[in-house]
């Protein structure tokens, strides 16, 4: 297979973890006889500094050229600490999602047996937890009508039937491939937009008789994820709720540095770690590259390259079992490995096995 990959390293630790993802991608493609071509593009604060736009037209064209985008992270404290800034790095991420029609964000939450002790939750609660959060990504308050004044502000949480139907179809497709259980998360007791979500979901449930469909208010879902994460198989929800719940889900594993994600829709799919740019760690060689590397596995699997994805996952699991870990997940007294060293170990493992 010939693959064209747009690489958007972004800000902060982005370039460091991006380099490890590219090395792993190259090693897998070489091992399995695939050709891969990369094209690098600007996004986020770096793009603002160089072009004035967090998602320049040239970057958009590069994304359209590609079969997939390997994205890292955006964000910079220069903008976080300036409430008057009219242009922000995160606007580049939102623009990419909107222009590429990336309406479905897929975030798997899976525990690693050797890292259960890292979770703030008890081992008996999280052992075997394995679920997927599917977040609607281009609707809701993030993209609705807005107003911001000195005395009044609002964000409109608007959804259409068509937007709800298409994300539910993604959720059901995943449920059919997994344990056939779909949980629709809303706030239908308060929000009109959520009542439309529930109405549409109830109508669609009859089309998927093999899937058990249930409904849960978002506050209850947040509590249930902590009390009994093994209850969930596939969770589907709107943009704002999904943003919050998926970050909560990441804590179950013990580190946000372990979880990848995919965003799919109308045009080029994007694969990225769920964490941010962590600017405080920039250039220190301490960032965990595993979420970026596992995003490569999701990318490969998206194109039906199942063995290739498994090779990446096997290498990541082997690195964890061997204690080749960045500081935030290393056992007390364990050896010190940096971003580059972990990436190099995994790349070497793939080539040798």
Domain module count: 2
User: Over all CA atoms, what is the radius of gyration?
Assistant: 20 Å
Summed over residues and divided by their number, the pLDDT gives a mean of: 93
Global structural class: alpha/beta
DSSP summary: helix tally: 13
Helix percent band: 40-55%
SS elements, strand count: 12
Report the portion of residues in β strands.
15-25%
What order do the strands of the largest sheet run in, or round the barrel if closed? Answer: 2-1-3-12-11-4-5-10-8-9
What is the CATH architecture term of the largest domain?
3-Layer(aba) Sandwich
Tell me, what is the CATH class of the largest domain? Alpha Beta
Shape label: globular
**Biggest pleated-sheet summary:** 10 strands, mixed
Q: Report the span from N to C terminus.
A: 21 Å
| Uncertain stretches | none
Supply the CATH superfamily name of the largest domain: Isopropylmalate Dehydrogenase
What name does the CATH topology of the largest domain carry?
Answer: Isopropylmalate Dehydrogenase
Order of helices and strands: EHEHHEHHEHEEEHEHEHEHEEHHH
């Amino acid at each position: 297979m010939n693959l064209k990959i747009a690489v958007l390293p972004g800000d902060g630790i982005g370039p460091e973890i991006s380099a490890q993802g590219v090395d792993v991608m190259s090693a897998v493609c070489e091992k399995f006889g695939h050709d891969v071509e990369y094209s690098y593009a600007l996004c986020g604060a770096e793009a603002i500094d160089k072009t004035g736009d967090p998602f320049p037209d040239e970057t958009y064209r590069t994304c359209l050229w590609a079969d997939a985008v390997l994205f890292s992270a955006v964000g910079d404290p220069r903008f976080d600490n300036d409430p008057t800034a009219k242009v922000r790095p995160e606007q580049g991420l939102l623009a990419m999602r909107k222009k590429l029609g990336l309406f479905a964000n897929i975030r798997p939450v899976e525990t690693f047996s050797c890292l259960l002790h890292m979770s703030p939750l008890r081992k008996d609660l999280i052992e075997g937890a394995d679920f997927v959060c599917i977040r609607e990504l281009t609707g809701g308050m993030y993209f609705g009508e807005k107003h911001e004044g000195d005395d009044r502000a609002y964000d409109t949480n608007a959804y259409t039937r068509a937007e709800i139907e298409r994300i539910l179809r993604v959720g059901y497709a995943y449920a059919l491939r997994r344990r056939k259980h779909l949980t629709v998360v809303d706030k239908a007791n308060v929000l009109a937009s959520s009542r439309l979500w529930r109405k549409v979901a109830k109508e669609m449930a009859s089309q998927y008789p093999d899937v058990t469909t249930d409904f849960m208010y978002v506050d209850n879902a947040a509590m249930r994820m902590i009390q009994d994460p093994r209850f969930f198989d596939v969770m589907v929800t709107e943009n704002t709720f999904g943003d919050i719940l998926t970050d909560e889900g990441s804590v179950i594993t013990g580190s946000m540095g372990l979880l990848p994600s995919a965003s799919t829709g109308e045009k080029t799919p994007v694969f990225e770690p769920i964490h941010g740019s962590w600017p405080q760690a920039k250039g220190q060689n301490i960032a965990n590259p595993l979420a970026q590397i596992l995003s490569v596995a999701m990318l490969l699997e998206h194109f039906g390259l199942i063995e290739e994805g498994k090779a990446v996952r096997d290498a990541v699991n082997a690195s964890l079992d061997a204690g080749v870990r960045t500081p935030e997940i290393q056992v007390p007294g364990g050896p010190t490995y940096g971003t580059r060293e972990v990436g190099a170990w995994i790349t070497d493992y793939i080539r040798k096995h």
